[in-house]
């Protein structure tokens, strides 16, 4: 088994396994039927908030639902791009896939935080728990991504040691 997986890469792959299918299905339900899809369980807090507090007309509610679907599809697309980039070992080792993961985490955190605030405003405890859990998953992955840097390439000191022996003394007291 390969041991060159970083913790943030593995964590991002696990998050992608959750967010890509879940948010894609939710977004496609909104695309197929905007009002009905907006009132599904994962989006009920957003739907109740815009109907209670914003009091939007039907056409504006449809536009808002499409905006929610677009945001969730964008997050799913960036997670999918991260997984595709993760399959190349050279990209994975150098951290080249971190940008896609970072964008997915940032946009997903904003969507989950806004949904959590809306759920708390309308009193939907089940939706509040769902969005808070998603937000904690995304923030935890973001913290791991920020703290863990890609491994630096190690230089082979055996190659440079003979060149140094001809140029200068290797003993520290011999100056």
TrEMBL record:
The chain crosses the membrane at residues 12-32, 64-87, 99-120, 126-147. Keywords: Membrane, Transmembrane, Transmembrane helix. This is Uncharacterized protein. It comes from Bradyrhizobium sediminis. The lineage of its organism: Bacteria, Pseudomonadati, Pseudomonadota, Alphaproteobacteria, Hyphomicrobiales.
